C-alpha cells in the first residue's frame, strides 16, 4: 500500500513494481470507490490501485464531527467547489456544487442523512431495460454494507424510532448507521408529532419500499465514537495494510489509454491510466479492468478526456475519438431545494449561534474533541416525504392525471426525441401513485440565502440577526435534465454542469404547489391565503438551490435510448471499462443518495468478481 502526497522518482519506481501486477485500476477514492477496492482485494490474487485527486482526511476533526460539514464546503483540501452555468430557470443564478475531494469523496462532507429509495424508484431501472437492478434485487446490497445501531430507550423516547423495522436492516456491515446520541435539538424532539398533527401518515421503515410521512432520519454516525461513518473510515481504514491494495492520493487522472482489439466486436480496451502529480505525468497499466468512479461530474469528464463521448465535442478540443457516444455527459438530473425561512424566538437556538460567534464555535469544537459532546455531534435528521395529493388536493386540482399529462405532453412537443427511453411518461405515472413522494420536506435550524448560493459555502451564510429555521422543499424525481461536458482538454479545467433547473414545466408546477402547501402549514400570518400561484413560482425561481444530489451523466440504459453503460456497468464500445457511481442512475430517486451509492458499489463489486476475466496483457500480448 502506497499512500502519497506526491510521487518522487524513487517512489514511482517502487510503485511501478507494485502495479506491474495490478488487476484493476479504480479512478477516484470516493464513496463507491473505496467500497469497491475493499471488496475486490478480499481475493489475495487480485491487486487494486486507487487514484484519488484529494488527500487522506482520516482523523481530521473537521470531517469526523457530524455537524461541521458546512465548514468544509469551498475549502480546496476537502471540496472540488464546482459551479453550474447560470440557470434560466432560477432567475439566471449560478449554483455552487460542493463535491468531496478527499478519500471518502462526498461521503466525507455530506449532511450524514441516510434514507432509502422507494420500491418504484428502483423498479424503474428494470423497466427501462436493466435486469437485476430492481428493488428486490438491491435489498441484499443495502443490508450488506451497513450496521444498524438501535437507540437507547432514553433516545428512542425523544425521536420516536418505532417506524424502523430492524429485520430490514443490516447488522454486521462496515458502515455505521444510527440515530445520533449526541445533543438533540429542540425541533428534532417535536418534529414527528408535528407531522402527525398535520395529517401526514404514520411512517413505515423506508426499507419496506415506501417512506411517506414525517420522521427523524437515520444518520451515518458511529454512535460508539460519535463521529462520521463514511467510506474512508468504513472501507479503507480497516483494510489499509493489505499488500494487494495501493492507494495514491493527490493524483489527478488525466486520461485512460486504449488499444483497439481487432475482432468482430470492434471494442476498445483500456490498457492503462495516465495521472499527474506535481506537474509530472505517470502511467499505470491495468491487467483486467479500469473502473471509473469519479461521480456525476468527473466520470463523464474522464471518459471524454479519454476519447469516449460525442465526436464533435472531442474533436473541438483536439481529443482522438475512441468511442463516439453523444450520450456521455447527458441526462444530468438533480434534486432541487426551495427554502422558506422563519425567524424564531431567542430561546430556540439554531446554527446561527455557531456561525455568527467564532468564540462559541471554538468552544463547540473543543467540546467535541475533548468530550464528544455539544452541538457538533448531531447531524440533520428532520424530514417528511409527501405525495402529490398532499400538495395538490382535489379541491385545488380536480383532475391531476390530465394536468400532469398535459405538462408532460407539452414538454415532449417542445423537446422532440430528447428522451427516447420514455422516462417522462414513467415518472409522471409514478407521481400519481398515492404511495410515492413528490417532495421531501426538510426542517433545518439555520437560515438559507439563495442569493449567495453561487458558492456552496454561501448558501447558509447571512447577515440578518436572530435565530432562523428553513423549511426546505426538495424534489424527489425532477424531470428536468441537463448535461455536464468538458470545457478543455486540460484535466484540471472544471467541466460545465448545466442541470437545467425547471426546464420541465412539471418540476416548477410541483415546486409552486409545495411552497403553498408548506406556507399553509407553517406561516403564522395570513400571508399564504393571499399568495397567488404565480407568486409561488417566482419564489421557487428565486429561492431554489441544489440539494447536492446530481445523477445520471453516464446513464445505465440501452445505448439507443441514451445509455452510456449497460446493466453490467460496462461502457458501451469498450471491453474492460466500467462506471460505478451516481452517474449511472438513469432516473432519480427520492432518497439522500449516499445509501444507494453504497448499494450500487456492492452490486458492482459482485459483477466485476463474477466476470473475473482474462486480462488484456495475458490475452493479447
TrEMBL record:
InterPro entries: FAD/NAD-bd_sf, GMC_OxRdtase, GMC_OxRdtase_N, GMC_OxRtase_C. It holds the Pfam family GMC_oxred_C. Its cofactor is FAD. One of its GO terms (molecular function) is flavin adenine dinucleotide binding. FAD binds at residue 253. Residues 25-336 form the Glucose-methanol-choline oxidoreductase N-terminal domain. It comes from the Eukaryota. Residues 480-601 form the Glucose-methanol-choline oxidoreductase C-terminal domain. Keywords: FAD, Flavoprotein. Belongs to the GMC oxidoreductase family. This is GMC oxidoreductase. It comes from Lepidopterella palustris CBS 459.81.
Amino acid at each position: 500500500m502506497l499512500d502519497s502526497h506526491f510521487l518522487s522518482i524513487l517512489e514511482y519506481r517502487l510503485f511501478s513494481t507494485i502495479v506491474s501486477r495490478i488487476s484493476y485500476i479504480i479512478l477516484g477514492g470516493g464513496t463507491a470507490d473505496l467500497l469497491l477496492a475493499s471488496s475486490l482485494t478480499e481475493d489475495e490474487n487480485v491487486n487494486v490501485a486507487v487514484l484519488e485527486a484529494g488527500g487522506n482526511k482520516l482523523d481530521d476533526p473537521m470531517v469526523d464531527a457530524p455537524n461541521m460539514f458546512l465548514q468544509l464546503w469551498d475549502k480546496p483540501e476537502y471540496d472540488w467547489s464546482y459551479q453550474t452555468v447560470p440557470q434560466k430557470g432560477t432567475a439566471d443564478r449560478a449554483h455552487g456544487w460542493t463535491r468531496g475531494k478527499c478519500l471518502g469523496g462526498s461521503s466525507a462532507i455530506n449532511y450524514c442523512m441516510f434514507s432509502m429509495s422507494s420500491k418504484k424508484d428502483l423498479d424503474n431501472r428494470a423497466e427501462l431495460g436493466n435486469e437485476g437492478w430492481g428493488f428486490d434485487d438491491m435489498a441484499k446490497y443495502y443490508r450488506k454494507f451497513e450496521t444498524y445501531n438501535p437507540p437507547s430507550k432514553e433516545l428512542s423516547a425523544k425521536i420516536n424510532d418505532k417506524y424502523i423495522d430492524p429485520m430490514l436492516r443490516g447488522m454486521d456491515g462496515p458502515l455505521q448507521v444510527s440515530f445520533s446520541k449526541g445533543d438533540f435539538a429542540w425541533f428534532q424532539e417535536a418534529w414527528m408529532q408535528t407531522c402527525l398533527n398535520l395529517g401526514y401518515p404514520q411512517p413505515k421503515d423506508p426499507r419496506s419500499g415506501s417512506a411517506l410521512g414525517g420522521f427523524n432520519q437515520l444518520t451515518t454516525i458511529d454512535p460508539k465514537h460519535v463521529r462520521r461513518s463514511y467510506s474512508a473510515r468504513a472501507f479503507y481504514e480497516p483494510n489499509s495494510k493489505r499488500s494487494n491494495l495501493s492507494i495514491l492520493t493527490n493524483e489527478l487522472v488525466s486520461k485512460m489509454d486504449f488499444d483497439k482489439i481487432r475482432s468482430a466486436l470492434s471494442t476498445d480496451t483500456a490498457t492503462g491510466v495516465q495521472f499527474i502529480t506535481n506537474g509530472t505525468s505517470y502511467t499505470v497499466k491495468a491487467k483486467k479492468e479500469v473502473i471509473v468512479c469519479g461521480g456525476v461530474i468527473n466520470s463523464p469528464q474522464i471518459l471524454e478526456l479519454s476519447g469516449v463521448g460525442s465526436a464533435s465535442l472531442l474533436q473541438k478540443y483536439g481529443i482522438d475519438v475512441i468511442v463516439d457516444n453523444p450520450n456521455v455527459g447527458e441526462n444530468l438530473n438533480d434534486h432541487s431545494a426551495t427554502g422558506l425561512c422563519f425567524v424564531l424566538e431567542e430561546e430556540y437556538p439554531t446554527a446561527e449561534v455557531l456561525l455568527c460567534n467564532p468564540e462559541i464555535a471554538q468552544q463547540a469544537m473543543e467540546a467535541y474533541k475533548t468530550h464528544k459532546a455539544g452541538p457538533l455531534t448531531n447531524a440533520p435528521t428532520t424530514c417528511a416525504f409527501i405525495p402529490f395529493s398532499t400538495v395538490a388536493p382535489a379541491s385545488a386540482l380536480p383532475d391531476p392525471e390530465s394536468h400532469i399529462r398535459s405538462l408532460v405532453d407539452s414538454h415532449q412537443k417542445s423537446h422532440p426525441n430528447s428522451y427516447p427511453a420514455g422516462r417522462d411518461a414513467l415518472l409522471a405515472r409514478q407521481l400519481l401513485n398515492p404511495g410515492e413522494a413528490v417532495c421531501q420536506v426538510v426542517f433545518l435550524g439555520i437560515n438559507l440565502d439563495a442569493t449567495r448560493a453561487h458558492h456552496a459555502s454561501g448558501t447558509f451564510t447571512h447577515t440578518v440577526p436572530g435565530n432562523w429555521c428553513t423549511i426546505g422543499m426538495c424534489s424527489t424525481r425532477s424531470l428536468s435534465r441537463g448535461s455536464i461536458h468538458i470545457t478543455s482538454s486540460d484535466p484540471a479545467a472544471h467541466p460545465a454542469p448545466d442541470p437545467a433547473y425547471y426546464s420541465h414545466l412539471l418540476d416548477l408546477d410541483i415546486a409552486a404547489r409545495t411552497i403553498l402547501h408548506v406556507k399553509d402549514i407553517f406561516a403564522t400570518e395570513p400571508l399564504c391565503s393571499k399568495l397567488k400561484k404565480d407568486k409561488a413560482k417566482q419564489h421557487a425561481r428565486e429561492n431554489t438551490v441544489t440539494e447536492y444530489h446530481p445523477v445520471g451523466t453516464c446513464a445505465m440504459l440501452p445505448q439507443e435510448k441514451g445509455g452510456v453503460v449497460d446493466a453490467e456497468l460496462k461502457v458501451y464500445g469498450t471491453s474492460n471499462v466500467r462506471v460505478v457511481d451516481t452517474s449511472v442512475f438513469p432516473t432519480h430517486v427520492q432518497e439522500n443518495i449516499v445509501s444507494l451509492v453504497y448499494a450500487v458499489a456492492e452490486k458492482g463489486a459482485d459483477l466485476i468478481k463474477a466476470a473475473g476475466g482474462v486480462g488484456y496483457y495475458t490475452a493479447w500480448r
